From TrEMBL:
Stated name of the protein: Endonuclease/exonuclease/phosphatase domain-containing protein
Short name of one Pfam family: Exo_endo_phos
Record domain Endonuclease/exonuclease/phosphatase: where: 4-224
Annotated GO MF terms: catalytic activity
Phylogenetic lineage: Eukaryota, Viridiplantae, Streptophyta, Embryophyta, Tracheophyta
């Protein structure tokens, strides 16, 4: 689960909404808390629709200042407890675990009224019995190390902040990247940077979260950066993964000359069987594609460093904006971030992307004997046993069905047409009519791959299809596929609660 907080400094303009959407897509938080929205709850409903997060609570701004909002995904069970102009307190019900209390907090910017904000946290703290996380813009620092430039902060204000942290038995979660979260956007000796945005966690519960990761996400559209807390960010990845699923043909390379040359060499390498040719091309293309994607990630990283240097240094805001837009362009070529371009249109592309983001992996499952299976190996075994039992035949009958009583409804002419041999042109026409974006089989090559490289692969593909249709070749080589389990209910328990869908195949 990922929690994000950002002082957006107003979401009443298109540019900030666009940046917010980009932030949500790139970081994929489960819950986001926004402060200083500077609009009322009715106007924020527009922002909520654009961000495509199902749950939302917005607190009205006061005379175009302040304003809070919390948004969350449908997959999270979030209950709002209390809210005010300085906080939104929520209860997050975590599957197979105890609930978490998450309080989005905005400290009063006026030092003379800051004590009211601390008193509000005290009132919330009295009702908290769960694991507690507080995140947001505290408008205060803990010590001198959290400020650079400008006049020294008042010791009294820093001591007040430290006192409330100690009184509530909280600890400050340090970020893995970045430190300062606010800059005054001035240059030279007038430049001031502070760490105003924090995540606090109840001290007794820190050891319950073994894989916590906190980070700073630089933003050019606000003087505040966003902060993110990933509860499971440091958890090691599951080692069980089919190596064939590591590669997926990327449509970006469909007309890339270098990619076409690799496909041609892989296909014409002397291998006879068509399916083996497909496997060989997938391996060669996968290695090349991995290098290309690595280069793109490095390029994105370089641009991010330049953006950070401009924000941290004495460069102009225009320079930061220019590099940020260029970085967005690079990111825009990635399928996931294409929402930036397509998100405002109700296209099939957007619908698929939005639906996919709501999907959840199966954390645990009951097997056919009613026992819970919680690791990936045992879950896969339980699924396989279920289907083996389901499709196992219990009939031991040698009876032959008599179909003589069924009246003939097909004429001789129609039957002759149906019995005609398939032709090369019919196979090619069938391929041309297939949606090139449809999900590929386990070799991860979509219809787009075959369409764009038909001059290389077409002859062998036609021969394979004709051999199978004529009964000259066993179709067992085509029986591998990917099965997706779609939940029938909100909280699936066993396999009867899932609907299996076998992803369509190209061949």
């Amino acid at each position: 689960m990922k929690l994000m907080c950002w002082n957006c400094r107003g979401v009443g303009n298109f540019a900030t909404v666009r940046d917010l959407k980009q932030l949500l897509i790139a970081s994929d938080p489960d819950i986001i808390f926004l402060c200083e929205t500077k609009i009322n709850a009715n106007r924020f409903s527009y922002v909520h629709r654009k961000c495509r997060m199902e749950g939302c609570l917005a607190v009205n701004a006061e005379d175009k200042s302040g304003g809070l909002a919390m948004m969350w995904k449908e997959s999270n069970k979030v209950e709002i407890q209390t809210y005010s102009s300085n906080h939104i307190d929520s209860m997050i019900h975590v599957e197979n675990d105890s609930p978490i209390r998450f309080t989005g907090f905005y400290g009063n910017a006026d030092p003379n009224k800051r004590q009211c904000s601390w008193n509000m946290l005290r009132r919330v703290g009295k009702s908290v019995k769960e694991k507690w996380i507080i995140g947001g813009d505290f408008n205060s620092i803990l010590d001198d190390a959290e400020k650079e430039g400008g006049r020294r902060k008042s010791n009294i204000l820093m001591e007040d902040f430290r006192s409330i942290v100690e009184e509530l038995s909280m600890v400050d979660l340090k970020t893995d990247n970045g430190w300062f979260t606010w800059v005054n956007n001035r240059e030279g000796t007038a430049r001031v940077k502070e760490r105003l945005d924090h995540f606090l966690m109840s001290a007794n519960d820190v050891n319950s979260f073994l894989f916590l990761e906190a980070g700073v996400i630089r933003q050019s559209s606000s003087d505040h950066d966003a902060i993110i807390l990933d509860i499971e960010g440091g958890r090691p990845r599951d080692s069980l993964r089919d190596s064939r699923l590591c590669f997926k043909h990327d449509v970006r390379w469909a007309r890339n000359e270098e990619a076409k040359m690799i496909i041609k060499e892989g296909w014409q390498s002397g291998i006879q069987e068509t399916m083996e040719k497909i496997t060989n091309v997938g391996k060669k293309l996968g290695r090349w594609q991995y290098k290309k994607l690595k280069q793109m990630r490095n390029q994105i990283g370089t641009l991010q460093v330049k953006i950070n240097r401009i924000i941290d240094g004495q460069g102009s805001n225009y320079e930061a904006w220019k590099f940020a837009r260029y970085r967005e362009k690079i990111l825009g070529s990635k399928i996931r971030v294409n929402w930036l371009k397509e998100g405002d249109r109700n296209t099939r592309f957007f619908h698929v992307r939005a639906t996919n983001r709501r999907k959840k992996n199966i954390a645990r499952l009951k097997d056919i004997n009613g026992y819970w299976r919680e690791n990936t190996v045992d879950i896969c075994k339980a699924i396989r046993e279920y289907f083996q039992l389901l499709f196992k035949s219990n009939l031991n009958s040698n009876r032959v069905l008599n179909l003589d009583y069924i009246e003939r409804c097909i004429s001789v002419e129609d039957n002759d047409k149906l019995l005609k041999d398939f032709t090369d042109s019919e196979i090619k026409e069938a391929f041309s009519q297939m949606d090139p974006r449809k999900a590929p089989r386990i070799d991860r090559l979509s219809g787009n791959f075959f369409r764009e490289n038909w001059d290389v692969v077409g002859e062998d593909v036609i021969k394979l299809c004709l051999d199978i249709l004529r009964g000259e070749k066993d179709m067992g080589c085509l029986n591998d596929t990917i099965i997706v389990l779609i939940p029938k209910i909100k909280e699936p328990v066993d396999m009867t609660n899932f609907r299996p869908i076998s992803l369509c195949r190209v061949i």
